[in-house]
Amino acid sequence: MILAEIFNSWQGEGGSVEGSAFGRRQIFVRFAGCDLRCIWCDSRAFISAPSVKKWRYEVEPFTGRFEYKPNPAKLDEVVDVILKLDTGDIHSISYTGGEPTLQVKSLKALMERMKELGFANFLETHGGIPELIEEVAPLVDYASVDIKDETARATENWRELVLKEVESIRILKKAGVKTYAKLVVTKDTKEENVKWYAELLKGLAPLAIQPKEPIDIFQSQLMRLYNIAAKVMGRDNVGLSFQVHKYLNVL
Ligand SMILES: C[S@@+](CC[C@H](N)C(=O)[O-])C[C@H]1O[C@@H](n2cnc3c(N)ncnc32)[C@H](O)[C@@H]1O
Ligand SMILES: Nc1nc2[nH]cc(C(=O)O)c2c(=O)[nH]1
Ligand code: SF4
Ligand SMILES: [Mg+2]
């Protein structure tokens, strides 16, 4: 598999909505490569897999000290690194990226191994390819599925992507996965679009609203977007999320 990095940190996103692992210790496996191009992506250094020649792992949490290994990574060496980074308080393994589902064969093999070793599996995905979600769903315990707002400019056909993401959430819920949707909002996010997302998600999965970092949205606008979603989805199904790890200065 083509990896970017493996590290042990706190899950910094998701807030308190059901299915979120916010504030829990996780070991993150970041896959390289992505088929989307969100303009605000904070992992853009890893989104072209062929250019990610090496992967790194942090030898001790929060030391910023890394060891580097050549890509492609082998399953056994990845498992060894994860076990070496295990601090005994790990809630789940987070599979993220780039887009982890693009390497679905390797992702499944790793998830299977980690499940056998007694770990829960947390998938962080753009949900844009439901067929791949279908393939990996039986191995997933928790999932965060992005709903890419129009202002992410993730792809040409934005509406079609959102509908695919909702389909992926449906597949995960049907497979019994604790799933929530994550919506990154910006100062240009349109209220009518948030209403549309909320109507799609109503009764299906909770929504974590996450300001794009660096934050450019005013609190008053964030409050309005939250209010629109909560009015449609119910007050217990919407929560605020923000990238806490960036404030803690940890990976
Ligand atoms: C880097 S993505 C990788 C997983 C998957 N490709 C996706 O987009 O969901 C992980 C998470 O970071 C969030 N994210 C990335 N850049 C961000 C930024 N600048 N501000 C807020 N959230 C960001 C994404 O929305 C996503 O929920
Ligand atoms: N601490 C921490 N929490 C995270 N939650 C989602 C992340 C991601 O990049 O997928 C992430 C990340 O990169 N670091
Ligand atoms: S889908 Fe995820 S990894 Fe890909 S560009 Fe968007 S935020 Fe970055
Ligand atoms: Mg991140």
General description of the model:
With 251 residues, this protein is α/β, with parallel strands linked by helices. It contains seven helices and ten strands. Strands 4-3-1-2-5-6-7-8-9-10 form a ten-stranded mixed beta sheet. The model has no long low-confidence stretch (mean pLDDT 98). Bound molecules: S-adenosylmethionine, the ligand Nc1nc2[nH]cc(C(=O)O)c2c(=O)[nH]1, iron/sulfur cluster (SF4) and magnesium ion. Magnesium ion is lined by residues 42-43.
Gist of the model:
This protein is α/β, with parallel strands linked by helices and 251 residues long. The protein is built from 7 helices and 10 strands.
Present as ligands are: S-adenosylmethionine, the ligand Nc1nc2[nH]cc(C(=O)O)c2c(=O)[nH]1, iron/sulfur cluster, magnesium ion
User: What is the 3D form?
Assistant: globular
Biggest sheet: strands, sense, closure? 10 strands, mixed
Helix coverage percent: 25-40%
Order of helices and strands: EEEEHEHEHEHEHEHEH
Q: By helix and strand content, what is the structural category?
A: alpha/beta
Q: List low-confidence stretches.
A: none
Number of DSSP helices?
Answer: 7
Which radius of gyration do the C-alpha atoms yield? 17 Å
Report the β-strand fraction as a percent range. 15-25%
Strand order, largest beta sheet: 4-3-1-2-5-6-7-8-9-10
Distance, first to last CA: 21 Å
What's the mean pLDDT score? 98
How many β-strands, per DSSP? 10
